[in-house]
Every structure is written in structure tokens, then in C-alpha cells.
Design a protein that fits this description.
Organism: Sciurus vulgaris
InterPro entries: FUS1
Strand order of the largest sheet: 3-2-6
Radius of gyration: 24 Å
Helix content: under 10%
Number of helices: 1
Pfam families: TUSC2 (PF15000)
Strand content: 25-35%
Largest sheet: 3 strands, antiparallel
Number of strands: 7
Protein name: Tumor suppressor 2, mitochondrial calcium regulator
């Protein structure tokens, strides 16, 4: 579950251009260097949706179909999970935007 952050891929988007994010780089040199390139915003505006569309256009996390099972001459209804013909929801816009999971910030509440 922790693989959703950028550190899992070896990237750290909020690091300075001086590189090295170790404790030895936390001196005055890192404070004096301005980051190069386009600044990375600390917010996330979209996320990957966790739901699916079925062939009827319904949207849900899981889909089940009812099947009739005959056992010892008795008919019994069972639910079977559907795995085929499901289309992922895609990207969902977040309203309001969230803070990025790897953004180094301390939240303080009085």
C-alpha cells in the first residue's frame, strides 16, 4: 500500500536542485540554492478511480451476478463475482485538492 508515493519509484519531486537529501546536505548550502526548473505544487488535483463500469454502464466497486445452483434436488441462488467486461473508471478530479503524500510539511493544530 505504500507504493503509491513517488519515493517508491526512486523520485523525490520536492527535493532541491542541490541533490543529496541526506542529513549532511541539510546545512547552509542547501538553504542558499534555489531550485531549478518549474516548481512542483504540493497539491494533487486528480486521482485514479477505484470503481469500474460494466457492460450496462453501471458504476460500482464490485459486480455480482446471481446463479442458480441445484444441490440434492434443491435450487439455491448464489452470488458470483463478475471479473470480465469491466472498464476502469479512469482519473477522477478531486474537489478540493489534496496535499501530495510525499510533500514534506508538518501539520500543526492548536
Amino acid at each position: 500500500m505504500g507504493a503509491s508515493g513517488s519515493k517508491a519509484r526512486g523520485l523525490w519531486p520536492f527535493a532541491s536542485a542541490a541533490g543529496g537529501g541526506g542529513p549532511e546536505a541539510a546545512g547552509t548550502e542547501q538553504a542558499l540554492v534555489r531550485p531549478r526548473g518549474r516548481p512542483v505544487p504540493p497539491f494533487v488535483f486528480t486521482r485514479r478511480g477505484s470503481m469500474f463500469y460494466d457492460e450496462d454502464g453501471d458504476l460500482a466497486h464490485e459486480f455480482y451476478e446471481e446463479t442458480i445452483v441445484t444441490k440434492n434436488g434443491q435450487k439455491r441462488a448464489k452470488l458470483r463475482r463478475v471479473h470480465k467486461n469491466l472498464i476502469p473508471q479512469g482519473f477522477v478530479k478531486l474537489d478540493p485538492p489534496r496535499l501530495h503524500v510525499d510533500f514534506p510539511v508538518i501539520l500543526y493544530e492548536v
